[in-house]
Write a structure and sequence with these properties.
Layout (H helix, E strand, L loop, with lengths): L14 H5 L6 H6 L7 E3 L11 H12 L2 H6 L10 H11 L6 E4 L2 H12 L6 E5 L3 H7 L6 E7 L2 E2 L1 H9 L6 E4 L13 H14 L2 E5 L23 E6 L11 E4 L5 H9 L7 H13 L3 H27 L4 E2 L8 E6 L6 H10 L2 E5 L14 E5 L5 H16 L3
Parallel strand pairs: 1-12, 3-4, 3-6, 6-7, 7-8
Antiparallel strand pairs: 2-9, 4-5, 8-9, 10-11, 11-13, 12-13
């Protein structure tokens, strides 16, 4: 008798799969192809011209002349990452290389952190509004969230403290401290220290997700060393926004007391990040020591001109229609509709009809108490100033067509 001779009994999937919530379109909206003529001010994507393809070609050429090292790149390596890459990251972070764990991108790092430090059903405080894919990661452990408002200078630490003093006990807090996604602001120096003090006083994990840290438009970025001083803080970063998202390469700065346990966890999951990718990136960074910062100087100038161009285009084509602050770094403008009677849902639909795609702010709201639905998250990283201007023209046409 074969399987075709009997009625098959469908094996059930795990309850986890059955209980996953349906996304509201973030992944689809940002990653699937749009109509050919659509202008996408949509995702935090680096510009093609800022991707260091020439440096990678040179690095691979050097590795070809070192066959033993190149062959090692095709072999297994340890879960924590190859030493030469961890040393470079550690120097950049100002910590011991023993605290660095190399990951397959920032999202993988966050997934490891949630698995390591959050138990089933734990209460986790989060940015409000929030980068929504973190909620998807968190969902695998807990849907019990405490939304904390995000202000112009980062998460409202005083509001968090009030909740803690009132008796709320959280297992962790998640925030994007530099050039926040989606609200574009950065956590002030005072708030950083206050937040770390609260983590130490109340014994919760502070998860600082910092993919945009290097993309500041001023002379220097904000200090991140405070996140390395606490035994309760985990700092997550990635090369996706600086060297390219296709590398799938990032890292976690772990408190010393947790490293061995997180490595054990990693060994029970994906075991390691691609040795070849790590080897190639390490050669790029160490083989041309000035390259990374030189490339960042060019990228920062490029993104700054586009951020300023976007705000200028809104002022020119839609004077008074939006409240904006020129970004000081990152990939996003968090523009607010000045007319509270304007229908943001209708505007989003009309913009699509006019060939413009962006992320409506309401998608990011993780709870009550924000006016995120009055905002548009406009991404400027991968569009020229001219293309951005044309996109805003289309937004203006959509806005003027509203009922």
């Amino acid at each position: 008798m074969t399987s075709t001779d009997i009625d098959a009994v469908a094996a059930p999937t795990a309850r986890l799969l059955q209980e996953l919530t349906q996304t509201t379109g973030f992944s689809d909206a940002t990653l699937v192809a749009s109509a050919p003529d659509t202008i996408r001010l949509l995702a935090g994507v680096p510009d093609r011209s800022a991707l260091p393809t020439d440096a990678f070609a040179r690095a691979y050429g050097r590795l070809q002349h070192d066959p033993d090292r190149l062959i090692e790149g095709f072999q297994y390596s340890n879960a924590q990452g190859i030493p030469e890459l961890r040393e470079w990251i550690a120097t950049r972070e100002g910590v011991s290389a023993d605290r660095i764990l190399v990951t397959a991108g920032g999202q993988h790092g966050l997934s490891l952190v949630v698995r390591a430090f959050v138990d089933e059903g734990d209460l986790v405080a989060v940015d409000n509004p929030i980068w929504p894919l973190f909620l998807g990661i968190l969902e695998l452990k807990s849907r019990n969230i405490l939304p904390i408002p995000v202000e112009a200078d980062g998460i409202d630490v005083s509001a968090l403290e009030q909740q803690l003093r009132a008796g709320r006990r959280i297992r962790a807090l998640y925030t994007v401290p530099d050039f926040h996604n989606p609200t574009q602001g950065s956590l002030s120096e005072e708030k950083r220290r206050h937040l770390v003090r609260l983590a130490d006083e109340y014994g919760f994990w502070l998860i600082a997700d910092n993919p945009y840290r290097e993309l500041h438009f001023g002379e220097r970025g904000l200090d991140t060393s405070v996140f390395h001083e606490s035994p309760n803080t985990v700092h997550v970063n990635t090369f996706s926004k600086t060297l390219g998202p296709g590398l799938r390469l990032g890292w976690i700065v772990l408190p010393e007391r947790t490293v061995a346990d997180v490595v054990r966890l990693r060994n029970r999951n994906d075991s390691q990040t691609s040795t070849l990718t790590q080897t190639l990136v390490a050669e790029v960074l160490n083989g041309e020591p000035a390259f990374f910062d030189d490339n960042l100087v060019r990228a920062r100038s490029l993104y700054r001109s586009r951020a300023e161009g976007l705000v200028a285009a809104l002022d020119r084509h839609l004077p008074g229609a939006f409240e904006t602050t020129v970004p000081s770094g990152g990939y996003f403008l968090w523009a607010r509709l000045a007319d509270d009677s304007a229908d943001w849902q209708e505007l989003y639909a009309r913009a699509a009809e006019h060939g413009l795609s962006y992320q409506p702010g309401a998608f990011f709201a993780s709870g009550p108490g924000t006016d995120a639905d009055r905002h548009l998250r406009l991404a400027y990283g991968d569009n020229t100033v001219e293309r951005i201007d044309e996109g805003v023209e289309r937004l203006a046409a959509a806005y003027h067509s509203l009922s």
